[in-house]
Design brief:
- There is one protein chain.
- It contains 17 helices and eleven strands.
- By secondary structure, the protein is α/β, with parallel strands linked by helices.
- It has two domains: about 250 residues, Crotonobetainyl-coa:carnitine coa-transferase, domain 1 (Rossmann fold, 3-Layer(aba) Sandwich); about 90 residues, formyl-coa transferase, domain 3, CATH 3.30.1540.10.
- Strands 3-2-1-4-5-6 form a six-stranded parallel sheet. A three-stranded antiparallel sheet has the order 7-8-9. A two-stranded antiparallel sheet has the order 10-11.
- Helix 1 packs across helix 7 and helix 7 crosses helix 8.
- The two termini are about 40 Å apart.
Length: about 400
Amino acid sequence: MPEDQSQPLEGVRILAVEQMQAMPFGTQLLARMGADVVKVEHPTRGESGRASAPTIRDVDGSEPGATFLRNNLSKRSLGIDLKNPKGSELFKRLVPSYDVVVENFKPGTMERLGIGYETLAEIHPALVYVAVSGFGSLRETPYGSWPAYACVPEAMSGFYSFRPEPGRRPNIGVAGAIGDIGTGLFAMVGLLAALHGRERTGRGQKVDVAMLDAMISIMDMVAFGPSIGVHDASIAAWPGILQTFSASDGLFVIQVGREHQFENFVKLIGHPEWLEDERFATREGWSENIEGVVRPAVEAWAKDLTKLEASRRLAEGGVVAGPSYEGHDLLTDPHVQSHDMICEIPVEGRDEPVRVHGNPIKFSGSPEGPADKWPLIGEHTESLLRTDLELSQADLDALRSEGVIR
């Protein structure tokens, strides 16, 4: 691959009025593919993700929080107070220099600041404007005024009612902020589709993604199952083996859902006689005998194997299996290493780097995108305003003295 090969989104400029995780996760992904993402933040507080916990001490003495650290690599920070009329005016002047504006505030917030879609589209008709919120802003909803962190759309989509365990409440947040990440991904698909449409029409449009809608799409089985006659949502409703098992150093997962898989499975763990055992004549029988028969046999077979060794033997024999990793396992896994899926971000004054996920999207003709350190609040304000608006030093000093910029 040529060293000077460009990245796919080079030349795309995004003005991001974003906070916390849904939108920052998505725009970070685009930044790693070459987009110029300029993050608009309050000049002293920054965006709300900086106030999350836990925190680290940064080079300027500030203490950005975990949500901010892992969602804002390879971006530039523009410190503008959008509640100040001069700040919102600066923002409007900047918009024509950008292809996209993104925001993930409660509906109506940008309009109250005087920088909603209708206003910006008059200034820049080719603008693509992407909005993420709990319940959307383009169609009617009775929930539009509700605050919505990921747990709310996750719950309302049926995420926590899917495959319940008897006698146990749902584990909230079991998959991290999947409501944020899933929504951010849908928003980026919409953003790229609108950019492509603009190439044909010359006009931009608003892309609106509700977190609840995104989660309903992700949790598609919740509504689909009953429509085809599946009314029991418990784990046992899935006939087959879908469990974790213990090896010498931790857990590994096995999924057996087809007869030929079961045949391979029982032979690999040394119990071919189960093929003639009436208890295992049906998939439901496999499920019913997990704790009494299957688990003791599998764990006896795996007791001297690592979770990776057990998984490899099963996988190479045609059984779906994989180790249940913890953080330290990821650092040494050869796949993770060769795919650059853990990026180490050095921070001055810290012995240990901050480790952030890599970009899962790989290209045959483009290099791996940047994983540059997150920006300090307003770190690029002066250079951006000089370049995009040709402001003089006197202009910048005046704005700074009034608290409009950092």
